[in-house]
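haha ok so turns out i had the wrong file open the whole time. this is the CORRECT one, sorry everyone. sequence first:
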Amino acid sequence: MNEILNKIQSFGLVPVVKIDSVDDALPMAKALIDGGLPVVEITFRTDCARDAITAISSEFPEMLVGAGTVLNIDQARDAVAAGAKFIVSPGIDIDVVEYCLAAGVSVIPGCATATDMTAAVNAGLDTVKFFPAEQAGGVAMLKALSGPFPGLNFMPTGGITLDNMLDYLTLPNVIAVGGSFMCPGKEITAGDFGAVTAAARKAINTMFGFELKHIGVNCRSNDECENGGALLEKLFGFEQDISEGAIFSGGRFELLRKPYLGELGHIAIGTNFFERAMDYFKRMGLTFNEAQFKPGPDGKLNAAYFSEDFFGFAFHLLRK
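then structure:
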């Protein structure tokens, strides 16, 4: 995948937005940015789509802006001239694909059948839009397509909701999902951009599924560690899992035999998408303590400590 598609994969979510008034473009974009989603696909279904893309691209250069529902080369040219960094279409038109490839613009054509996907692969693409996702067979269809198209990635759109998006995102051949549920049109029309921000944040939190996995306690001595484990078992029935460096109590408390990171200890937060979550926090300006990176046998990093402590605790992400 190219740089733009890698960014889309890093976001995992692509809000699909129909702008009816160019006056709504900038507050909508800011609402998405405030919600943690600096990416948007503006559909070419209204007369102000081009102007909206121009306004957002100029005012918020940090936002990845694409054009959707692009049906022909003229619309593709208009979108690129307006500042669109990627082009999305409901179906596959080889002329549009070839134009975008020649112009160095990422293109994600809509594909619903194996015939469509064969055409996309033969055109040199490695990523397509699976549309309409739910109506075209959903998750089961994408699983079946992974066999004949092992190198093809998908961005499903159409019928994707908060309730089913994780079913798609957990598939290895899905880089992101698109939909309007992250940026509801009625809220935009009503000027309720706070609701847009809330919807974006809810989608992000649903995707990541952040969950407290355990609390690490810096014991001052081995005796304190041993006594603490015994006490938690006596009081609450928390079974002890004893190791050389710590005692896990009830699966939620890690009593460390000697102090480790953090003044008081550390807190582990699990996430559904480890690398994507790291990118998300980096966009927020946070950094990670690379000296603590310890890849597993498969070469993957399963835990990453933030460089900064919070209220006396070191925090780290944990791959679920």
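DSSP finds twelve helices and 16 strands in the chain.
again sry for the mixup
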